[in-house]
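Dear support,

I submitted the protein below through the web form. The confirmation email said the job was done, but the results page showed an empty box. After a refresh the structure appeared. I'm attaching both so you can tell me whether what I see now is the final result or a partial one.
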Amino acid sequence: MYLNAGFKAVNNECTWLKIDDENQTTYGIGHEKMNELMIKEVGDLKWENGKIDLLGYLY
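What the results page shows now:
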């Protein structure tokens, strides 16, 4: 479905705040290379493989 809509799979290293929302507990910073991400380029900007910073509350 997403591929047909113009999205493409990317493989980027992500950083995020590990939160147990149920217990309101943080477990530090997570670091992992994600291969489940999909993006859709808009305009003239090209996607660059690099680090994605998702630090903050739950996304």
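Response: this is the final, complete result; the empty box was a page-load delay. The two ends are 22 Å apart (CA to CA).
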